[in-house]
C-alpha cells in the first residue's frame, strides 16, 4: 500500500508512523458499519477511557435538558390555580413524578461530579464504569418520572381508565426503545 508520500505503508510492521496512521484510518473506513466494539486501532487504555468518558458526558448532555425542563414544570404545578381541584390519587402520582425527576437529575449529574472530584486522582476507567451505572439508574428514574407525569396529566384531563391505558402504552414504548432494543443490539456482540 502506498501513501500520499509515495512511500510503502508499513502499518504495524515498523513503518513510518504517518503510514501506520493511514493504515489505521483505512481500516476504519472499510470496517463493517456495526463494528463498534473495543478500542479504536492504536488506542491505549488511557485513550480508550478518555474517549469513553467524553462519550458518556456527551450522552448526559442530551438527557439532562429534558430532565431539567420536566423538573421545572413539576416545580410550578402545585402553585397553579387548578391544583386545588386535584384528587388524592393525582397528588400521589405528582409526588412520585416529582421525586423520580429529582432522583433522575441527581443521578444524571453525578458522573460529572465523579469526574470533577476524581480529576487527576481517580482512575478514569472506574469513573467511566461508575458513571455508566449512574446514567442507567438516572434513565430508569427518568422513565418512572415520564410515566408518572403522563398518568397525572391524562388523569387530570380524562378519566382514570384512559390515563392508565395511555401510561401503559407509553411504558411499553419506553421499555422497547430504552431497554429491549439496546439489549438486543448488545447481544449481537
Q: What oligomeric state do the depicted chains represent?
A: single chain
Major sheet = none
Principal-axis shape: elongated
Q: Calculate the terminal CA-CA distance, rounded to whole Å.
A: 31 Å
* Structural classification: mainly alpha
Describe the structure.
- By secondary structure, this protein is mainly alpha-helical.
- The chain has helices at residues 17-30, 45-76, 88-118, 124-157, 160-187.
- It has two domains: 1-31, no CATH class; 45-187.
- The longest helix has 34 residues, at 124-157.
- Mean pLDDT is 81; it is low at 10-14 and 23-35.
Labels describing this entry:
2 domains; mainly alpha; 189 residues; elongated
List the helices and strands and how they pair.
Elements: H1 17-30, H2 45-76, H3 88-118, H4 124-157, H5 160-187
Task: Quickly describe the structure.
With 189 residues, the protein is mostly helical. It has helices at 17-30, 45-76, 88-118, 124-157, 160-187. Residues 10-14 and 23-35 have low confidence and may be disordered.
Amino acid at each position: 500500500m502506498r501513501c500520499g508520500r509515495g512511500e510503502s505503508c508499513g502499518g504495524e510492521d515498523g513503518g513510518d508512523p504517518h503510514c501506520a496512521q493511514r493504515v489505521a484510518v483505512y481500516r476504519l473506513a472499510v470496517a463493517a458499519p456495526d463494528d463498534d466494539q473495543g478500542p479504536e486501532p492504536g488506542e491505549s487504555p488511557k485513550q480508550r477511557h478518555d474517549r469513553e468518558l467524553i462519550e458518556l458526558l456527551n450522552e448526559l448532555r442530551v438527557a439532562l435538558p429534558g430532565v431539567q425542563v420536566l423538573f421545572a414544570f413539576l416545580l410550578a404545578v402545585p402553585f397553579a390555580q387548578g391544583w386545588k381541584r386535584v384528587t388524592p390519587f393525582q397528588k400521589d402520582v405528582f409526588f412520585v413524578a416529582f421525586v423520580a425527576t429529582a432522583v433522575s437529575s441527581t443521578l444524571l449529574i453525578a458522573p460529572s461530579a465523579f469526574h470533577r472530584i476524581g480529576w487527576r486522582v481517580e482512575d478514569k476507567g472506574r469513573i467511566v464504569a461508575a458513571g455508566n451505572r449512574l446514567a442507567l439508574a438516572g434513565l430508569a428514574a427518568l422513565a418512572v418520572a415520564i410515566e408518572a407525569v403522563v398518568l397525572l396529566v391524562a388523569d387530570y384531563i380524562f378519566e382514570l381508565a384512559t390515563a392508565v391505558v395511555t401510561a401503559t402504552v407509553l411504558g411499553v414504548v419506553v421499555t422497547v426503545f430504552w431497554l429491549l432494543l439496546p439489549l438486543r443490539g448488545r447481544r449481537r456482540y
